[in-house]
Write a structure and sequence with these properties.
Layout lengths: L1 H8 L6 H10 L2 E5 L3 E9 L4 E10 L6 H16 L4 E4 L4 H7 L15
């Protein structure tokens, strides 16, 4: 699991140890199986609670099925915890992969280091 998350974190500015510290504090959630792992968090606003998955990776020789299983698990967790939507950020290729699960491309993101 560690290597999959580390690979997913490349270029994000996060380290595996920082993610695990966030998990210990309850800020992040990790869903994993024997072929994939995803890191998620809550994003809340006055009207919405979104379950946001922001790092995902897995066995490069596996199909997307193990990841899809985790997404379904994460969605069920999100519903049980009062979220009204789910989404994610990551590499452009995830847009195509997530369409099979009913996700659509949302607003593009931009970033600037301060």
């Amino acid at each position: 699991m560690k290597e999959w998350i580390e690979s997913a974190l490349e270029g994000s500015g996060w380290t595996f140890d920082e993610v695990m510290a966030g998990v210990e504090k309850g800020d992040f959630f990790i869903f994993s199986n024997d072929q994939a792992a995803i890191v998620c968090e809550y994003i809340t606003s006055p009207r919405h609670k979104v379950f946001h998955c922001w790092a995902a990776g897995g066995d490069k020789n596996a199909s997307l099925k193990p990841l899809e299983d985790l997404i379904n698990e994460a969605e069920a967790f999100a519903i049980l915890n009062g979220c009204d939507s789910a989404g994610g950020t990551g590499r452009k290729g995830w847009v195509r992969a997530m369409r099979n699960l009913g996700y659509t491309e949302a607003t593009p993101a931009v970033e600037k280091e301060l």
